[in-house]
Structures are given as C-alpha cells and as structure tokens.
Amino acid sequence: MSFMQSLLNPYPWFKTMREQHPIYFDQTIGSWVVFRYADVKQVMTDYEHFSSAPPDRGDGMNMFANSMLMTDPPRHRQLRSLVNLAFTPRMIEQLHDRIDGLVNRLLDDMLAQTEPDFIRDFATPLPMTVIAEMLGVPTEDQDKFKYWTERIITSSNNPNISEIVPIYQEFGAYLFGMIEQRRNAPQADLISDLLKAQIDGESLTDMDLIGFCALLLVAGNETTTNLLGNAVRVFSEQPAIYAELRANPSLIPNVLDETLRYYSPVKAMPRHAHTEQQIGDVTIPAGQRVMAVIGSANRDESQFPDADTFDIHRKGNQHIAFGHGIHYCLGAPLARLEGKLALEAMLKRIETITIKPDAQLEPIPTPITFGVKNLPVLITTSE
C-alpha cells in the first residue's frame, strides 16, 4: 500500500508498518518513510543529520525556503528570535476577546444554515480570519488566501509543477505588495512590526518576510482547521466523549491534546539526510528525503498505552503533533487558544454534533496534513 492511500483512515496501515516495515522507501512520494515514535522523534530533532532545508528545486517554488520551517541553525535561530516577538504569551492573550467574538459570530452563521458544513462554515474561516487580521490582510482578500493555501498544501502531491508555479507566483507577488505598502505606510499589524524588528542589528529581508507570512498563512490555517474538524470527527464517532465534555468543560485541554495525538492535523514532515544515516537496520543514502510520520508516531503503542483508544483522561500525553525540538510549532499557543475558545462556545450552544450519515467526506490529498475538505453535520442546539 502507498502512503497516499487510505487518507481518511491510515491508522491500521500505520500500525502494520510500525510492526513490519518501520522504515521503508515509498516510490509514490520518492521518500523514505519512518513510522515509529522514537525514530520519528530522532529525525525531527537531529537537525545536524536530517536537514529541514530542501535541495534547491529551481522551479520558482522556493517561497518557503527562507522560512523557519525550511532552515537549519544558525539561520533558524535568528529567524525564530525575530518572529518570536509577535508570539509572546502577552501578544496571544491580547487576541482572546477578538477570537471569542469571532467564534460566536461564526457559530451564529453556522447554526442558521439549513445544511451546515463544519469545515466550510466554522473551522476554515476562524483561523483564516485571525491570521489574516494579524498580518493586515483586507477582509475582501481572504478568499484568495484560502484558495492559495489549499493549492499549496496539496501541491506536494502534484507532479505537474507547471500547474503550481503560478499559484506560488501570485501568492508571493501579493505578499511582496503588502510588504511594500507597510514599509511606506506602517500600520498596527504583524508585517509592520516585523519590518521594524531587529536582533543584533539584523532585520528580516523581504524574502524572509514572505517566507514567514506564507508559512503563517498556510501552516497556521490548515493546522487549526484540521484540529477542529478532527475533533468533530471524534465527537461524531464517539458521542459519549462530547457528552462527558459538556458535563465537565474543564476537560477541554485534555480533549485538545488527545485530538492532536489521535488525529494529528500534521500527518508527516519531510527532512533530507545530510550524510548517509542509519536508522535501525536501514541505511538511508545522503541527500535522500525522509518523511517523519507524526500521525503514526502518535499512535505508537510503545509510547501510548491503548494508543488506538481516544482517552479523554489520558495522562502524560507526550504527543509530537506540534513537532519537537527547534522546530516546535511557534503558533501552538495560538492554535490552542483558538481550539479552547471554539470548544467552550460549542459546549454552551450545541447539545449534539454528528456527521451526516450519508456524507461523503473528501480527504485532503496530501501526505503532509490529515483532515477533510468537507464536514456536513447534524446539530441539535441547547438554545
């Protein structure tokens, strides 16, 4: 079976691979694939041997090459130190009331729909609006950003590069235009702040800024959208969990962490072997791609007892859904805040939420993320 099959439920295959072929080469994606928790953690943490910086493709698709996601130390540390200024606990907490108001407005709109779709009506516009507002993207342009981010996320599985390059070019040109506008007329937004930020006398270049903005829009949106959508999948599959959560909302942090582990929004992350590397009894040649499967690692029975059980009371949940080591997700506190406020409002206003029995869910067709494009739901309210 290929890594690109069973996108709606790859977990039985992950289990088989952990037991029988924990490291193998997948021809369909041209990559070594690593499934066990310890091995995945090693690949994600050991940046000296497994680089985040991909080889130069030279095809115009290098927008993210200057982002933290695709750089190694020392450059990674410099970039993270600069952009970390925008993600301090104080900065995130200042977004609380705005996110809370947005959550309830989106719930109003979704509950007014005769055929609500949780992804379309709630899980997509919530993080998109929050991040777009942080960057200063006008409301009327947010649909463009959703289109661009969806195409970029799925481009990892598109062999026809000529179809994707224009998307990157349009996206990059728009971001460059925003940077120029803020350079000439600063506003109260993240791009203006990053243009002023300096550490050790160094400022971000335009390509650094474009890489960061693109990363924030793509990774920040998709991760939170999938986290919320995957939580609703759990609630639909196991209604007792939602009922218990309504009875005890203090369990919201547990549910968010268990959702991150059980249905990890980021399914896998790529690395490249600097030199020939040995993982277990497999030798990976220098320069070859390695896919660290976070979704499989977070179901590894050697790390998580009863790994295939969604345990709302799980203790010591050391999942790696937000990554590990120097590349631990900078936006994790924002995703947690959005998830917490979303669930708090849902618990107050929604008595039950289940996926429509006849719904044909469409998985996101990429090896990188785990989620669905649509989630038609049946809702009973407590209002």
UniProtKB/TrEMBL annotation:
Domain of life, per UniProt, equals Bacteria
The protein's matches in SUPFAM superfamilies, at most eight in alphabetical order, are given as:
Cytochrome P450
Q: Can the keyword Heme be found in this entry's annotation? A: yes
Gene3D superfamilies, alphabetized = Cytochrome P450
Record CDD domains: P450_EryK-like
**Does the keyword section mention Heme?**
yes
> Mind listing the UniProt keywords for this protein, alphabetically?
Heme, Iron, Metal-binding, Monooxygenase, Oxidoreductase
Which protein family is named in the record?
Answer: Belongs to the cytochrome P450 family.
Give the protein name, as stated in the record: Cytochrome P450 YjiB
Its gene? yjiB
